[in-house]
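TASK: fixed-backbone design
INPUT:
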């Protein structure tokens, strides 16, 4: 059985955090579906690696600090200047921090909020008018940690909760203008950020124990859900935060017997 296939021929897609992990896989899936894709992030060499093997006329790597409002406005302007339109935005750039709130210094909180929340704010503000012009849509990568609490992750949980509720509220504000906003909410996913833990079977076991499907996610599990929400097949879905969590959220929290 094949994965779902999508047709995004000639659609212009902007993906933040496109240099690795979920963002890289999402970029490649859109390119495979015929889209014109711009990936953005701080490290242009990683962005270029995400686009290797794809036609240069359909792929652009753009260096930008997504937490900086002028750079985000410049990013959107550059995509419009190169490709003339904007059909889909995937807000994926994210950072992670854990530990007791009393141990999290002010600079760490500022950095976490800037990457996870401010970047979304700047991107949505810059992109939504252009998505309204094309009847486009925005898909954010949130987290199951934005729906409930985790031990030792209060700051991270707060930032992801902000993204989920940003999506819901903006869906109300922009629906009448023809723009859809949705989010996917993965659980523990094997990416470069988690690769150390992912290689340690003992450390990974408590996470797997909470997952109904018995394994952590990989970027290949998350990307199709992003493409679905961006597709015409989801044309009557907006304001949704779709769990892509292997059944993590199905549990009440009782121990696995």
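OUTPUT:
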């Amino acid at each position: 059985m094949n994965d779902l296939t999508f047709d995004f021929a000639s659609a212009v897609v902007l993906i933040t955090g496109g240099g690795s992990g979920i963002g890289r896989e999402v970029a490649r899936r859109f390119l495979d579906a015929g889209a014109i894709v711009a990936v953005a992030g701080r490290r242009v060499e990683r962005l270029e690696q995400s686009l290797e093997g794809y036609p240069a006329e359909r792929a652009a790597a753009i260096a930008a600090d997504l937490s900086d409002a002028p750079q985000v406005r410049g990013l959107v302007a550059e995509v419009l200047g190169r490709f003339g339109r904007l059909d889909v935005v995937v807000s994926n750039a994210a950072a992670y921090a854990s530990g007791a709130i009393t141990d999290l210094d002010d600079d760490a909180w500022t950095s976490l909020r800037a990457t996870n929340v401010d970047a979304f704010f700047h991107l949505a503000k810059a992109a939504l008018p252009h998505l309204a012009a094309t009847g486009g849509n925005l898909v954010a990568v949130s987290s199951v940690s934005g729906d409930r609490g985790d031990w030792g992750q209060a700051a991270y949980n707060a930032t992801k909760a902000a993204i989920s509720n940003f999506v819901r509220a903006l869906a109300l504000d922009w629906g009448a203008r023809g723009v859809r906003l949705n989010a996917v909410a993965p659980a523990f996913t094997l990416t470069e950020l988690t690769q150390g833990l992912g290689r340690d079977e003992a450390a990974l076991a408590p996470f797997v124990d909470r997952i109904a499907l018995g394994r952590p996610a990989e970027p290949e599990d998350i990307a199709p859900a992003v493409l679905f929400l961006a597709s015409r097949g989801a044309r009557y879905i907006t304001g949704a935060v779709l769990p892509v969590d292997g059944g993590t959220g199905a549990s009440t929290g009782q121990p696995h017997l």
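COMMENT: The chain has one domain: 12-189+222-244.
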